[in-house]
Specification:
Blueprint: H1 61-73, E1 95-99, E2 107-111, H2 113-126, H3 144-147, E3 149-155, E4 161-167, H4 172-179, E5 196-202, E6 205-206, E7 220-227, E8 230-239, E9 242-251, H5 256-266, E10 274-278, E11 281-282, E12 299-304
Parallel strand pairs: 3-7, 8-12
Antiparallel strand pairs: 1-2, 1-9, 3-4, 5-6, 5-7, 8-9, 10-11, 10-12
Amino acid sequence: MVEMVPLPASPVSVPPPAVPAPPKMPSRGRRPVRKKADSPDQLTPIVPSTVTSAGYVGNSATDLLKQIRSRGEQVPAKRKLSEHPTAMFNRSEMVEVLDDASEDGGATIMMTPAQLREKLSANLQESEDKKFEGPSQGVTAPSTADVEDAVLQMIAPDGSRHSVAVRRGSSVAAVVAQTVGDSVPYPLDQTGTLEGWYRLEVDGQRIAPEMDAATLARRTCRLVWVAAETRLVEVCVNTGGKDVRFSNPMNTAVPVRSLVAHLLDWLALPPGDWCMHVGERVLLGEMTLNDLAEDGELTLELRVRDS
């Protein structure tokens, strides 16, 4: 048996699909109105919170400039030479000194730099027989041989060639010092630190710094760069016939004249014709410790010339 379902009284009509309204075009001569930034329809971007550390430095040009300036503020103020540790000692630091080393009864004692200066001054006062005199004040007319110039042909480390006029009788060390700042740049870094010095070679052979440079006039010389090193040197100061010894680190590229001036000022020694000796060898003022071929321990004697 089949059950019959009655039909609805009126058929249900399905609504037609929605048709989107056409876009509204603005009238001519008028600009469309844009929504403001605080419109509820516009989403506000969420910026994540960041925690900046104390040592953080940004990458912008302003941040880098601040960083460079802050480094300059950290540079300590310039101090007096006698107060500066440099290669010498701190004013409060004890120094091991061998007192009166020229005698058998010499003793090793600990002194502060101030006590060392007082000891050297006392030794000078005790010596009444020796009078330290500077170089002669008389003026001697130069000989014809001294005023004649010779010309050296030099090749700098960068390969450039230079003609250098030198006086006859000038040492090789003096000529090398003459070329610094002229034929070759000053061997300094951007902070003023001495990084090295130069020496003269001919055909790969090292030329003695005391040699007369004019004898090399017909040969091609080459300036060779020598890097600076720090070397522990024993310094022997002869004052009043007595020796006082101490160890001191030195830059091997500093000219001997500058080393002598530094020690005279630091030790408060009186003016005079002071010079450095290695054994019986008198070091020229333009020489450096790199000019000494000696390895191992090095002892420099500081005393007045011909004393």
